[in-house]
Amino acid sequence: SPDNPMTARTFVNRLWKLFFGNGLAKNVDDLGSQGHWPSHPGLLDWLAVEFVESGWDIQHMIELILTSRAYSQSSYATSGALEQDPFNALLARQSRFRVDAEMIRDNALAFGLLLNERLGGRSNKPYQPAGYWRHLNFPTRRYAHDMGENQYRRALYTHWQRSFLHPSLLAFDAPSREECTAERPRSNTPLQALVLLNDITYVEAARAFAIRIINEGGKDPKSRIDWAMNVALSRNGNAQEVKLLGDLQAAQLKRYLADEKAAIELNTVGLQTPPKEIPPAELASWTAIARTILNLHETITRY
Predict the structure, then answer these.
(1) I need a surface site. Which of 25, 70, 201, 303 has the fewest CB within 10 A?
(2) Which long-range contacts (CB under 8 A, 24 or more apart) does 143-146 make?
(3) Maximum distance among all Cα pairs of the chain, rounded to whole angstroms
(4) pLDDT in tens, 159-182
(5) Which long-range contacts (CB under 8 A, 24 or more apart) does 10-15 make?
(6) pLDDT score for 266
(7) How far apart are CA 155 and CA 153, in angstroms?
(8) What are the residues facing 301 on neighbouring strands?
(9) Rounded to two decimals, what is the model's pTM?
(10) Distance CA 287, CA 203 (A)
């Protein structure tokens, strides 16, 4: 109804939160008198009116926000700016925030060209620790992960078992869906690093990424490291990063040359078959580099 502006205001405020980390009104689920007053009330009103007058065109609003000067700013902030406006309420810079659990998984799969972007259809069942459902009764159930391309569908389609949420998504604060969650918390825990290093999904994604690094990144370690960081972070590595990752790759190559069985075990995690033309030790060593890059704070943070 044109007499009720709340729908449009609520929607554009949530859109703003998606792209800036926080809504113009901080409480995205409560724009009433009990919520926070908008930081830019005139802007929120203008966006709401524009949304209605555009015919409730969501794509138009997304394009409008993403082509704005506010969105295109750098997230870099001087010490003085941080002191004056620590929460970026004045929108003097772009915001930094860790992306949601589903996006972290999708990005990892995309780096290795594993992500299946097919829309719709039944839920998928990604890899999950054995025995995770052992206490799920009435009736008891067994979890069998998908064996085909459904394994690599977007995390949006993950099978959701109430009270037994998929553990890797749960580690990154995915909600239980037992009630509406308008805003997710963002935690920072050691378990998240362990998921990115050891979950089968991320190990397999790292190996697929490593295959691309070897095939597309050039012949020497520096070129490959720069290529990999450009894919994941949209920038080359600095001198310190290139040295650290180069030393790690050399050490891992030496290790796996001395223990080919360990290399083969790493290279056969998941469903994907490693290419025969890449020596096992070389692939395993670059998988270690890919796992490290997937574990970087910068890889899972929107700048």
Answers:
(1) 303
(2) none
(3) 74
(4) 988 888 899 999 999 988 888 888
(5) 11/51, 12/44, 12/47, 12/48, 12/51, 12/61, 13/38, 13/44, 14/182, 15/58, 15/61, 15/62, 15/65
(6) 95
(7) 6
(8) 98
(9) 0.88
(10) 8
